[in-house]
Specification:
- The protein contains 13 helices and nine strands.
- The protein has helices at 2-5, 26-31, 44-47, 73-89, 125-132, 157-165, 201-207, 217-226, 238-251, 264-276, 278-286, 292-303, 311-321; strands spanning 35-37, 57-62, 92-96, 110-114, 140-144, 172-176, 192-194, 210-213, 230-232.
- The protein has a five-stranded parallel sheet with strand order 7-6-5-8-9, sandwiched between helices. A four-stranded parallel sheet has the order 1-2-3-4, with helices on both faces.
- Helix 4 crosses helix 9.
- The protein is globular.
Length: 327
């Protein structure tokens, strides 16, 4: 989305690995016109440099940050961590929201709430089904375990693969797997199909009838944009706990959450419930604006080649670009 929104400008994009932030890339950061990072704690070393010597630093994040009485200890810890990182590593905190935030955090950086940034569909559902080896109008459920590896990999992958393997349902089941061939679970269910790699995961989601996934903002965003019913698996981390809460609050029901104690029969019944109540998802999704890419693209161009000392005058202009307010 950065390339798309900067296409008509002369801005050049350069990436940087996290291990080089404090060492060989430090001088490059100081010479750049703007820094944008994906919530890297390591960026606190760059922000600690005198504002006169460095460009503006922006961070983009996505989550409900209001601490609620219903929050688990894990969710509370996660929300506090996000705000701590914002203060330590950014001058401008672009915060993706599903709706007008009912909580505006008190920060020593500038807070800009923005709508969701979504990917555009590139392949038609018919083309996706053909690529999957399915019939032209064959219905399928997509099971998505995410692309995380190591400590970021969903911890209960094989548990749910085993349960899905026992699922007896009319839909075909498409597995968008993340495990290598050596570690891949060997499915026995003849109605299961392994998806090849799709460069744009939203194409798969847009073609599916229902999505089952580990909790994550990417899958939540794509399902909202494509208006697809989403069933989220039990959270295995504090961040994923918050993502489950966000979907539940948006839908207004626990229908969208899969319980840890469910067996294959329970899951089949939950899928049937989702079919009958798909309007809950459609209504919830329709309230969510999805033009965040356009707004943040225009915002970043206003910040480009400016210094932190100029933020006081630029900040009101950024707030005029977003439909959300900080009042």
């Amino acid at each position: 989305w950065l390339k798309t929104n900067f296409r008509k400008s002369r801005v050049k994009l350069k990436s940087c690995s996290k291990n080089a932030i404090k060492t060989r890339h430090k001088k490059k950061f100081l010479r750049s016109g703007l820094i944008i990072h994906d919530w890297r704690k390591e960026m606190n070393a760059i922000k600690a440099i005198s504002p006169k010597r460095r460009p503006i630093i922006c961070g983009v994040y996505h989550s409900d940050l209001k601490i609620r009485s219903s929050d688990s200890p894990e969710a509370i810890k996660f929300k506090r961590e996000v705000l701590q990182i914002a203060n330590a590593t950014t001058d401008v905190f672009f915060h993706m929201n599903l709706k007008q935030p009912d909580f505006i955090p008190k920060l020593n950086c500038k807070y800009v709430p923005i709508p969701l940034i979504v990917r555009k569909v590139e392949q038609s559902p018919q083309k996706v089904r053909k690529k999957l080896g399915l019939k032209k109008n064959e219905r399928f459920i997509l099971l998505q375990m995410g692309g995380g590896k190591g400590k970021y990999q969903y911890k209960h992958v094989n548990k749910w693969y085993k349960l899905i393997d026992k699922l007896k349902i009319d839909y075909r089941i498409v597995i968008a797997g993340q495990l290598s061939s050596k570690r891949r679970y060997r499915f026995k269910n003849p109605r299961i199909v392994h998806a090849p790699l799709f460069a744009n995961g939203r194409d798969l989601i847009n073609a599916a009838d229902i999505v089952i996934s580990k909790p994550g903002m990417g899958i939540l965003t794509d399902c909202i944009a494509s208006k697809k019913p989403l069933l989220l698996l039990p959270a295995d981390s504090k961040e994923r706990t918050v993502k489950n809460q966000m979907l539940r609050d948006l839908i207004g029901s626990d229908l969208c959450l899969i319980d840890d104690e469910m067996d294959a029969g329970d899951l089949k019944r939950r899928i049937e419930e989702v079919e009958k109540n798909s309007s809950l998802f459609t209504r919830g999704y329709s309230k969510v604006p999805t033009n965040g890419a356009e707004i943040i693209g225009r915002s970043l161009l206003k910040l480009y080649k400016k210094k932190p000392s100029q933020l006081r005058s630029i900040y009101p202009k950024l707030l005029k670009l977003t439909p959300y307010s900080v009042d």
